[in-house]
User: Fold these one by one.
Assistant:
Number 1:
Amino acid sequence: MYSIEEICDAMITAGSAAALCRTEQDFLLCALQTAGELLEVSCVVFYPAAGPPCGHIGTLRVNERAGSDLETPEHLPASFSDYLRRQPRRIIVSGDWDSLRTLLPSFDFSCCASLWISLGNEDQVFGTLALFDHESRRFDRTQQKISELIAHLIRLGLESQAGRQTLQSSEASNYQEFANLVGGVARDLINPLTAIFGYIELLKAETVEPRSAHLVTRMEEQIEKARKVIAAFSSGSEIKKLRGGEGVSVPRAELERPVTPIKSKPETDTSAWQSIPPEDNAGTRILLVQRSEAVLEFQRSVLSALGAEVIPALSANDALDHLRTSKMDAIILDDELEEPLSSKRLVWWVRENRPELAERMLLTVSRRPSRETREILEIAMLPHVTKPLEVLELYSRAQQVLQAGKNPHLLQ
């Protein structure tokens, strides 16, 4: 006889496994072990139904006592499982059903006693639970009821596992959508910030009052902090690490503090703007391909100092329209042009259809270039500048590209 305490302990063990185990396989192994110990059988086997939710698990067997000596079916045919599921109680004791030999002719039912229970509900079938013991064993009414109770608990556990996986999959999908949204917003914000950085560089090259220079420096510091936050969103890192010690507010006393303007840098920078007189580039045309309007306007502001005409294009398709109909002397393009015509495709088109411009292209490249960008740099061997763009670097490299036709060594 089975005591209430034994049955309750077994049920609690199986129920705890359903809550604590991370996979269906771990839960089933624990539940099968509990069933074998409670009913004192030689072997307990779970045969999964084909397809979801348990088809990926495979047959699981737990041996008790001399169970390793028993031969059990490796798999169950669908006809056997369907027949079992159609029974009123969804349970069969092998000695009472001669038809089992017809449904599973490869197995000798006379070699052992067996009890079979279908695990499932009206909506889905998880599989079949089978208990095996020596041939003299008889599964009485009480043992059948306990087996049904265990099967019911296993079914609830599998439903819980399936629901948990569905929830995790949904959460992962929602997180991915959120990450894509945040990444897109971050990219949209980083472009105006890049432009602002560029305009600050232009201001720093001008002659300004000491207080104006101080405020420009402070503005540059705060924009750099904002850029770091946006970069963290874009890369998926934890934003709290950036927010821990860096605030974006500046005390008024700090703003009012007088500072000595640094004159050496503007004087050095200014000379670089005049290394080649703008008149030397009169009549030349630069095709500027950049999908961000904010960055494009900043680049136009810098390139206008070269004395060349800057032709803007917000996409590779726009660039192709200009290249097919107009004469160009140089091309400056971004490495993140989007399909259907990417940066790589545009570079390859220029090399094939406008070979005179193949050596007069300048690529603006991200700090972490994509595989496609690295391929462009390795195969086409284009000169490039790294984003966020520095004013003098963009200016000087653009000068070199414009002079490439006359002096090819400038690009080496």
Note: The chain has a mean pLDDT of 76.
Number 2:
Amino acid sequence: MKKIFIPLSCTLTAVLLLSSCDKMHGEKTSSPQLSPEETSTLSISIEGVDAEITTRASTSEIGSDKTAQSTQIFIFEPGGACAKKLSAASNDIVLPRGFKYTVAALINGPELANPSLTALRDKIISLKDHPFVMYKEQQADLTTAAEVSVALKVTSLGARVRVKNVTNNLPSWLGNLTINKMFLCNVVGTAQPKAPTYNITYNWYGRNNINTPISDGSVTGSVSSTAEAAAYTLKEPALALSSGESFSGKGYSCSFYCFPNKNKTAIPDTGYSGTTADQSLATWLTVCGTVGEKTYYWTINLGENISKNTGLAANYTYDVTLTINNLGSVNPTVPVVPGSADISCTISPWTDGGDIITSI
């Protein structure tokens, strides 16, 4: 993991600090009067991203989803007013000594013009705009020290679900299994950088429109590529697998992205028939395939039996391997029947760390 060092500099007076941010936002803060007579030097480095600012070529299959496309660094006074915003390399920052500042880094986030600390924490990040947002904030204590260094180790706000392999273990006399679509359903689509609250907004159990349930056996009725956030929640591989064949044998794998969902609650065995997204249910993965002339669905609870975490957690990767043993359901809202598929989920931090193997 490549470490980015960002030296920063500016000399700030109390008048400029308090007036520039307050005028922009019309906010009144309770920051103490900062005296420029004694100063300290603050150095900031950022860890947790793969490379310096680059432009990602595509979002189809992303091997560099820890890459920074944009960087915003904020320094906040003790009362929460914005003292400084930086987005490019600069010299070390000189600040009035005697205070504790909050330093925050927002990677790949929406452009913010000198927000207050509260406004930054309350900012809503949308999956349809960008699932690769990273964030970290921590305190810089300049009470007495002449020089202070802060290393911000940013982590992803989202979770990553990778389908590493799908194997056709159906009897050979059934012919090929063609995987038409795979999609996440009941997807959490928004998050906040700090103390997050989430909304479940995308891909409701095979419905492109929540008020229009798809018909049994429909290939085209499930989530379409025109749906919001489809680039991160829908794949259409159209891969034909003969008996015993798998994705990996054809060099295929894919990644989905969502925000965390702490719920593990399963869809009822009879299926889900509501007309609104259910924020009490888990996020699910659905595989849609055809055998002969008929379409089947294998829908898997991603939040169930993950003992290490509470459902899908931020900054974690969930590697799913699926072996299809029997025909699935004709309705995507009906969960997979035990025995019809073998599923394993490998869980690990999005960056470094050991793996945890759990069967679901």
Note: The chain has two domains: 4-156, 159-359.
